[in-house]
Amino acid sequence: MDHTDPGFPEKQKSGIARTFIVYAGFFIFFLMIIGRMFYIQVIQGGKYQEAARQQYEERLILKANRGIIYDRRGIPLVTNQIQYSYGIDPYMTRAEEAPVIARKFSKIFGKSYSGYLEKIRTKKNFVWLERGVTPEQKKQLSLENYHSIVELKEPTRLYRYNEKAGQVLGFTNIDNKGISGIELSYDSWIRGRDGYTIMQRDGRGQLIPAADYARQDPQNGKNVSTTLDIVIQSIVDEELAKGVKEAGGSAGIAVFVIPQTGEIVAMSNFPGLDPNHPEKADVENTRIRAITDVLEPGSTFKLVTAAGAFEYGLRNSRDKINGERGTWLYKGEKVIDHEPLGTVTFEEGVVQSSNVVMAKTGLLIGEENFYKLARNFGFGMETGIDIAGEIPGTLKQPNTWSGITLAWMAFGYEVLVTPIQMMNAYAAIANRGQLMKPFVVKSVFDETGKVAFENKPTLIRQVITTATIDTLIPILVKVVTKGTAKAARIENLQIAGKTGTAKKVISGKYEKTYMASFVGFFPADRPQLAGIVIIDSPEKGFYGGAVSAPVFGRIAQRLMSNSILERPAEAGLSADSLFSRAILPDMRSWSAAAARAWLEDFGIEPDFVNEESGFIVQTEPAAGTRLVPDLEVKLVTADQVKTTGGPSLADLKGKSLRQAVNILQSQGFQVKIQGSGQVVKAELSKTNSKTVTLFGRQDDRK
Amino acid sequence: MTDQLLTSKPENQWQQADKLLFWAVLGLLGFGVLAVYSASASMAAAKEHSTEFYVFRHIAKVVAGVAVIWILSKVDYHLYARYSKPLMMIAVFSLFILLVTGGSGEKKGAARWFEFGPVSFQPSELAKWTLILHLSVLMSRKSELMDDFKRGILPLLVWIGATVMLIALQPNFSTAAVISAISVLLLFIARANLKFLIPVGLAVIPVAAAYVMLSPYRLKRITMFLSGHETVNYQLAQAIIALGNGGFFGAGIGQSKQRDFFLPEPFNDFILPIIGEEYGFIGVTVLLSVFVFIMIRGIKIIKRAPDLMGMYLAAGIVMTISFYAFVNAAVTCGLFPTTGLPMPFISYGGTSILFTCAAVGILLNISKQGTEPIIVPDEEEAE
């Protein structure tokens, strides 16, 4: 090597030395970077991984549907619907938008335009405009273009018959959890379990389906078949309401049961409760008063005395008893009849509801036997009905009785009962002495019809012998034909029953007002229904015979004359009538619009879990599910079918037809072409999600 | 005057080029293709309807780059000494033209490149490498004058000053700063007397400060960085999330989430966070270590360089490559304020990858002509 520079070795040496100095600096720089990377990636890694997940993961809750509640014939009483709530951010609302929005709301909800305008112009960050908006109303509102509008979607219960059986069906809270009635008592069955799906989101906010993420399908709640009969319930509701109004009463209670099984077919409370709007109701009216209210029953309780007299062989229908002209002094206390009687037969005493005759008979039965029989009829304890809130009433132990308790209890005082207990006792008479456990839910079954839980008729006990029944029923029939309950009498139908005038007891204190009741069953010879009708605080005559008996009679008449009870039983709930043969197709990659159109043809309103746009990536239930009326179909959409594919139709605009066809065919789409030249419009077929029609610009040379 | 300073062996006597260096660079280029593909697929799909849109263009440049390496490794580097001055003038002139015409590419309000049809050309890239070449040539010629400010240092400073100023006025502060730094380091290695170098370095500070102050956005950037609030910068925040999301071992190839429109420029200047996300701390460490490895190969080439021009040129090239890599890494992890410097061989880039490959080709040629260090005269190779 020829070095013309004699100083080269020296210069090279110092140059290399200086290079090492520079290198040292570089290496320190390198170590600082590695240290910093270690800090970010390893020490703080967890924190940033969480931050990343929050950015790219979106957890969509797939709400489980609550089960449908059917009546005994398979008519849906309670289904689900989607409701929307609308709020607005007044600060985000442009001045010219406010009147438009206010006008839209005013038009749909019929409230004042200026009221909405005032709300929209409130100096707040958020104001509710309207809640509980139905899907139809939402469609009419068409608020998609207003960014200041906040839309919340909530699954809610739809109580299809509003106030009919409202209290028994109960209602749910804002979280769709049952908080009263059947909705509460069977909540664990009806509720189901929410699922979720995790979607990946990109920096533009677009959702990408993430196949490898965990997902949990929602488990829909089980359906409930009740013992209620919506037709009977409607009739009972109507007649009760009419009766309460006619009597000027404050409230009414009516319950009807099939005596042989204990199935409650109607349970009415007046005033009613519309579970669709429980917030509008008086709290008083949300109670199922038949199981929560106690009253001192009065004459209806004489059933125990009469039954005891025969059961223990102490009296005969024809036995003569001194009615004491309406007033009998016992241990210094007066027993008074409102209809003074002389010496009458025992039967006459029952038919005329004589307190004197009953007091004397009670004393004859004796404390222990009387108490035992009252217990056997189910007084002083819950009937065991399958809805929450039942109270036992009060039947005191004989050792706590005073000297006159027995005599007074014999005509219905010093004992506290619930309407359902009283009805059930009479139902036992109708059922040849067999006391049944009342219930309102027959079965719980899943979407395929498989029964998960069943309430079978349950015999509590044989209360009295059939011999006693045979003696007792004709007497109860005479109560209606010529006794205190003549007002319940109807042609061609024998009703057996008893009137009563109960004292209201609230918090252990007697109220000054009375409750008029009638309890009985019909037809007397072959009982089909037993029931009780109570009218609270009637102004026009407070005797049960005058007020409640006619209501009971009218209900019986309507049911029998229209052969309602003779309808073929168990008409509903058969696989053929409830479930059609259509199945849910695989909607993945369908456009949101195509999926909606398909479902709407079956009368199904789709529930879009996130946006109603883009493509379907998941359906709930899955493809292949048989369609049933009221099937809730949840659709999860994404803006792209998959990360790398999925032409956005808008992006095809302006491309040449040939380019557009290539792009679409590479994505597996069938392409139809109209026109030529550049693409001006691309449309996904409404019926076939794999067909796209391209519209080209017309050829100008023609 | 020129030829006598330059020595060269006939090509057939050259040794093998530094193979390890070549494989390291090839490895980086190959890895870059993988990284660009992963980082660009989402955006390519969204914008161009093809996930491969960007990576195909990148591959084309990588192939061209490898060809450039191969060709230039065969060209005797002494040849450039003859053309360094005209090249330098062309570079400065193109920077000037860019400044006057505004160029054709606008990026955040700064004109930085020309576009000729599909080819874009970044004059600052040409200027950077030409300056290193020209400085190496001048410094080897003036190796006796490095203590003489007027005759030795000043001419160098004129070229440096002209280049840096024109780039700074684009405005492209970061490139100007990095070129200044590399130039000063090169002067240092070329034994420029420290009594000149230190005042020059100090003189730059007020100029740079004034330059920063004059621009609100630069001032904001610097003050934000100094006050530790750099993370309010969305891009950096996303970069750090990407790095952290990778953790120690990484999320796996193609598993980046941040590339999906969270991290801006995920396949250009901010490709390292995506690599960090997919390959983890391990991946980042290995990648940056490759640049340390290039430095190690570089010191060998520098030691064995047959003459001062080869030595300075090799030092300039190696420093530039690793300095770019480290500054890019430092920016993405928030050690440096955000600048627009690419990761050499990795980032999807226009001109930069070709110029860097050209530099590697030159470096390989220097290595081919290498001798044993002449520090021990006995080992000097005989003709």
How would you sum up this structure, described in words?
Chain A is an alpha+beta fold. Chain A contains 21 helices and 29 strands. Chain A folds into five domains: 35 residues; 169 residues, Penicillin-binding protein 2a (Domain 2), CATH 3.90.1310.10; 325 residues, 3-Layer(aba) Sandwich (Beta-lactamase), CATH 3.40.710; 64 residues, 2-Layer Sandwich (Trypsin Inhibitor V, Chain A), CATH 3.30.10.20; 48 residues, no CATH class. Helix content of chain A is 32%, strand content 24%. In chain A, strands 2, 3, 4, 5, 9, 18 and 19 form a seven-stranded mixed sheet that branches. Chain A has a six-stranded antiparallel sheet with strand order 11-10-23-22-21-12, sandwiched between helices. In chain A, strands 1, 6, 7 and 8 form a four-stranded antiparallel sheet that branches. In chain A, helix 9 runs antiparallel to helix 18, helix 11 packs across helix 13 and helix 11 crosses helix 17. Chain A is elongated and about 155 Å long. Chain B has one domain. Helices cover 67% and strands 3% of the residues of chain B. Chain B has a three-stranded antiparallel sheet with strand order 1-2-3. The N terminus and C terminus of chain B are likely disordered. In chain B, helix 4 crosses helix 6 and helix 7 packs antiparallel against helix 12. Chain B is mostly helical and 383 residues long. Chains A and B meet through helix 1 and helix 2 of A and helix 2, helix 7, helix 10, helix 11 and helix 12 of B.
Helix proportion of residues of chain A, in percent? 25-40%
Q: Give me the secondary-structure category of chain B.
A: mainly alpha
- Give the termini distance of chain B in whole angstroms: 23 Å
Taking pLDDT < 50 over at least 5 consecutive residues as the criterion, the unreliable ranges of chain A are 569-581, 642-647
| Strand count of chain B | 3
| Secondary-structure class of chain A | alpha+beta
Radius of gyration of chain A: 38 Å
Mean pLDDT of chain B: 85
What proportion strand of chain A?
15-25%
